[in-house]
């Protein structure tokens, strides 16, 4: 404390000669009050050169609270460094106490909390950060964006709901193109936005009931449809649609694959191209009785016989074919027999087409 002890000078004169950092207390020049000292406006002033103000509890920095009367304190947006008031810290800056963060801007004193932030791991330190459901826009923390809001990066979206920041990719989603820019969206392959619980949910797989195709795993070949006779699924009792393969495909346990044609292995008719006349017989896709496979579909055998009779050039081969059929009747399930029939018929068809073209 610097004291001016001369009693001969007047108070007015004394005020003019008090050095910087001191004030006239009525009888002498005394040091201005520092951080945490009691003060009284201009009568007992704080050292303004250090950024201090005479404030009551709650008016000043959150780093110094719980006192009565008025004390020298930093303003709310600053904190005491030990020697002076300094601006509180902004986003992403490491500190040793929460009161040093700009809490008025939404910042909290946090370690790395989860993957749902725009921050890396601060451990073992903590930093001034926005909470997990907010992000920093350069001047304050704001709520993260929800479904279909425009965004810049994924941490700006509510990732805890399954959203990420994406461009429009393709039709494997429940939204149409939105032009340029990016939006907070569900994973277009595996998830869709459910307005009920307001979050991204897993897309449905085979046989699950659905409302539209974007709810199904379209990347696996599924679409939302009513079941027909060609489907391996049965129509649901309530008439609801299901995620199913197209009419020319069936579910193999992992994805939709093409249905089998003549000679392909099967366990059910629906695994064969029934639309071409094939059915599952003896674990193989075959044409029904009195029909044969011409390489494209099943055709009626006797109709072909009738047409062939009109052409004498192939009569000899028809006789051979008939003999073969009679002989093969004794070995109806012989694969060799079926192979011979197929070869002969194809040969006849080729000659028949040649004669009539």
Provide a descriptive summary of the structure in words.
- The chain has 357 residues and is an alpha+beta fold.
- It has a domain at 289-357.
- Helices cover 15% and strands 23% of the residues.
- The protein contains four helices and 25 strands.
- The strands form eleven sheets. A three-stranded antiparallel sheet has the order 7-9-8, with no helix packed on it. A three-stranded antiparallel sheet has the order 12-14-13, with no helix packed on it. The protein has a three-stranded antiparallel sheet with strand order 17-19-18, with no helix packed on it.
- The longest helix has 22 residues, at 335-356.
- It is rod-shaped, with a radius of gyration of 43 Å.
- Mean pLDDT is 82; it is low at 1-11.
Unreliable segments of 5+ consecutive residues: 1-11
Cα-atom radius of gyration: 43 Å
How much strand content do the residues show?
Answer: 15-25%
For the sheet with most strands, the description reads: 3 strands, antiparallel
Please state how the strands of the largest beta sheet are arranged side by side.
7-9-8
Write a short abstract of this structure.
The protein is 15% helix and 23% strand.
List the helices and strands and how they pair.
Elements: H1 11-17, E1 22-24, E2 29-31, E3 53-56, E4 70-73, E5 78-80, E6 85-87, E7 94-95, E8 108-110, E9 126-129, E10 134-136, E11 141-143, E12 150-151, E13 164-166, E14 182-185, E15 191-194, E16 199-202, E17 209-210, E18 223-225, E19 241-244, E20 249-251, E21 256-258, E22 278-281, E23 284-287, E24 291-293, E25 298-300, H2 301-309, H3 315-328, H4 335-356
Antiparallel strand pairs: 1-2, 3-4, 5-6, 7-9, 8-9, 10-11, 12-14, 13-14, 15-16, 17-19, 18-19, 20-21, 22-23, 24-25
Helix pairs in contact: 3-4
